[in-house]
Amino acid sequence: MATVKFREPILDFLFKPDSDRWLTLLRFGLGLQIVFYSLSLRGDWHALFAGEGSSFVSRDLTEAILKIENPFVPQIGWFVTLGSHAGLGEQTTLSILWALLFSAGCCLLLGLVCRPSAIIAWLLHLCAAKSGDFLAYGLDNLMTIGLFYLAIAPLPDRYALERLWKAKQSDPGRLGFHRRVLQLHLCIIYFFSGITKCLGAGWWNGASIWRALTRPPFNIIPIELLVSWKILFPLLGIAVCVIETSYPFFVWLKKTRLVWLVSVLAMHIAIGLSMGLYLFSLIMVILNLAAFGPGTWIISSQWAVLFENRRAEPRPSGAG
After folding, report:
1. Closest by alpha carbon to 138, among 289, 38, 270, 271?
2. Per-residue pLDDT in tens (0 to 9) along the chain, 320 residues
3. CB-CB neighbours of 177 under 10 Å
4. Cα dist from 279 to 141, 147, 216, whole Å
């Protein structure tokens, strides 16, 4: 009896019926992300993932280390070897892989063959991230997470072109479960990221923000301007710690969700503009909007209506 008592609220929380608006945001956003990611690497794609003789760190070296750690992690070398068996040279195979990744992003944008496109985008991006592991950073991990959730989600959504010939609608409970998992994952990411920052003194005295903004190649703001505003760095550092650590708590509450969502989005947009990390900021905006955006705008509209109603209330007349 006690088990049933606790089981029902958990199931209601995990499988709360939901629409597919969040899935539309995730699909379109990740399609845009993949397109921009592919275009940003177009000029260096062959140099990044060539074997011996690469102008960057050799792919062979990176994949040799990767095989020691885990030989089952997907890598570009698998496709190069497969292409060689089909009589294709390394450069040709790399060009085909780039074209497939770019095409998968375009298909996600349009909503065509959504699930195969999501799986191809996830697999090829994972291969690129692992084969170029020495040059990878948080962006690649977050893109892999987002694409994985998209690949297993109940596609297509109602706004995908594929829906024109696939009229079957997804189960609202299943849609709610997939969104809930994404929400919980984001909360875990922000909470432990915030806790880690809180443990270091650099975020409390502003030193971490100073180092981030002055270290090449992220030093796009003139140093003179940074010096004139350095008094604000401790406040900004503390604000980041508070926003990230308390994200799992306040983003769930209806009264504070809009404030926290806007704060997180503003934080990531500021990071993108001040450090040139545009793709990193974009993926964080996409994941946050998909996870907590739909429904939040309803809350904001309710706030607006309440504000207007209070303004319209007649004011008591003064004593005459």
Report:
1. 271
2. 556 667 888 888 888 999 999 999 999 999 999 999 999 999 889 888 887 655 566 787 888 888 888 888 899 989 999 999 999 998 999 999 999 999 999 999 999 999 999 999 999 999 999 988 877 788 999 999 999 999 999 999 999 999 888 777 788 999 999 999 999 999 999 999 999 999 989 999 999 999 999 998 898 999 999 999 989 999 999 999 999 999 999 999 989 999 999 999 999 999 999 999 999 999 999 999 999 999 875 544 544 444 455 555 555 544 33
3. 20
4. 12, 15, 17
Half-sphere exposure of 194 (CA within 13 A, CB side): 19
Distance of CA 248 to the CA centre of its chain: 16
Rounded distance between C-alpha atoms, residue 259 and residue 253, angstroms: 10
Through-space distance between the first and last CA atoms of the chain, rounded to whole angstroms: 67
Question: 46: part of which helix (H) or strand (E)?
Answer: helix 45-49
d(CA 146, CA 223): 35
Q: Residue 43 corresponds to which tokens in the numbers above? A: 């000029």
What is the distance between the alpha carbons of residues 282 and 76, in angstroms, rounded to a whole number? 25
* Cα distance between residue 9 and residue 6, in whole Å: 6
- CB 270, CB 212: distance < 8 Å: no
Q: pTM of the prediction?
A: 0.88
